[in-house]
Design goal:
single chain; mainly beta; Immunoglobulin-like; 4 domains; 8-stranded mixed sheet; 7-stranded mixed sheet; 3 helices; elongated
Length: 481
Amino acid sequence: MKHISCKAIAIMSLLIGGIASHAESGVNLVIPSFTMEVNEEKTVSVELNNPGEQFCNFQTDLYLPEGIEIVKEDGWELIDLVYDRLTKKSRTEWSHTLDTESQSDGALRILVYSGANTNFKNESGAVVEITFKATKAGLYNIDMKNIYMGRDNSTSFHAEDYTCSVLVGSTDETALKLQGDFTLESLEDWSLALNENETITSIDLTETLDVAEGTLTTGNPNTLVYVAEGSQLANENNVVVNGNIENMVITDGHHFGVPKAFTAGSVSYTRTLGNTGWYSICLPFAASIPENVSVEKYVSLDVEAREVEFAPTTSMAANNPYIFKAEAGDVTFTGSNVVIPATPKMPCDRDFIGVYRHMSPGELTGMFALRPNGTGFGICSETAYSKPFRAFLNTKADVSSLSVRHLMDGYSGIENQERSGLRVMVRKHTLILSTEESVRAKIVTIDGKVIKERKLLAGESYSVQVAPGIYVINGLKYVVK
């Protein structure tokens, strides 16, 4: 371990206790964010960016997380000066000296100084190189604090603390929040490291110092990348800037998740169907229904009757599961200028739940999956699995299958029921009325004959048996078979 010399102590005193002054915008001391493998030794640059400024000294306290250490050689940390930014004074002597010392809080203080107050050359680039070794996989942060830069006129500049993210090996996290300086080399480094990770759904770069004009990708084409306004990130799709995405493409069969809501100018999702038939679907946006596609919403589940009811719908809400019928081939659902809300813990419509990740064998056991012919739901075995953007019935029904009843067009929608303050359920030969507020209900046949009229109190439920036919309840039509 090196001990800081008396000369270095004097320089530090000037840096910390000297005349403080402002610096030009963009002046900082950074370690570009990087990746490495477990047990790998990697040499990383500490870069001094000083546009429009001249400095001759600097110090910083380096804080390392457990899992990353500085390589030592003969008891000395492998920290070296980068001579491209120094001035050669003689054949063996350079303008600057490097000193390090451990601090009581666990930090390593790094001091680079010139006894003759010789300024660093140029206005950007590496001044020090540090060789790190990773001992444990994970996502880490390296911090630099107490950053001071000294000028040849004895004034100093106290720079902001800096944090850079480091990925060692792989990570199990699905939503990454990264910090630091992302150069073009850093973006390439991270993209290569994340190339086989198919579970990352978002990367937050909004608190980074800078992001170069490059691309950042993972093994998941649905990964959302959040960046600050003015970022130069060159990804073609799925980049959130200041709460907006210009173009969003959701790829079927890959994980998806939204940590923070945003607005999409355009969004699309395509499902390739091997056969004509019925399919389940759950999308994170309010979608338009494609031409020649029939979509139905979940209405009710009658466990005793072993029956599930679905009714036609003309709209699809975000994070709400549906079933749809379409011909074989590609079916594309789209949306324009739609809000993409934060993903709920469980996208669902009561017992009908949607999934946005791969469901492995065992996770669906006991749930019910839609049969391709649309006639019913079958119980999932322990070997059942699923791709994202599908939906399942999650019920404790002690049966192996549930039949599907497709209600006719004209069955009132949830919007109408909520607007009227009355909820109506249709069962075989029975109308079930319920309300959360006091309301008067009037049941009339299609030819105008009043069957029943009464006032329902808040929270009350009322059932009436009727013959098959079409009935009007508070101005809305219902079909009873």
